[in-house]
Design goal:
By secondary structure, this protein is an alpha/beta fold. It has 7 helices and 7 strands. The protein has a single domain, classed as Uracil-DNA glycosylase-like domain (Uracil-DNA Glycosylase, subunit E, 3-Layer(aba) Sandwich). The mean pLDDT is 96.
């Protein structure tokens, strides 16, 4: 069964950094905001990079992103997926990133994990002509990366 991405992109006209995931988890789709599963380390990592307290509510998460000029979305618009497993993704339709690029000041694109990078390179890179930097996934499934190591790598998002 094809699932359509239900979460709109988060960005403002002052966004300078775009971070892309692959496709929202079941928990994120339920919450209608990105990285909603408590085991995903995205919010812990990004808040640590900027030496801020980890946001708990969606409003606090949006404020963190806004304060640091970060736009957030995913590479995939719709796909077949079993649960939240990136490894099960099939029949991908990519998101159109032009709406974010045109309405903001995006200077750099970062990708959260190899699955998102694979689909970015396959469907999007040649269209928008912006090279993306792949960072290690913040997913709990990427357990070989400690929080400290993730934070060190993710410091690249500081412009």
């Amino acid at each position: 069964m094809i699932i359509k991405h239900p979460i709109p992109p988060f960005y403002s006209e002052s966004s300078r950094i775009l971070i892309l995931g692959s496709f929202p988890s079941v928990k994120s789709r339920e919450q209608m905001f990105f990285y909603g599963h408590k085991q995903n380390r995205f919010w812990r990592v990004v808040s640590s990079v900027f030496e801020q307290d980890e946001p708990q509510t969606i409003e606090e998460k949006k404020q963190l992103l806004f304060n640091h000029k970060i736009a957030l979305w995913d590479v995939i618009s719709s796909c077949e997926i079993i649960g939240s497993a990136d490894s099960s993704i099939k029949n991908v339709v990519p998101n159109d990133l032009n709406q974010i690029i045109m309405a903001s000041k995006i200077e750099k694109i970062f990708i959260n994990g190899k699955t998102a990078k694979k689909y970015y390179d396959k469907f999007i890179k040649d269209t928008i002509k912006i090279e993306a930097i792949c960072l290690p996934s913040t997913s709990a499934a990427n357990a070989k990366w400690s929080i400290e190591a993730l934070v060190d790598e993710w410091r690249k998002i500081i412009l």
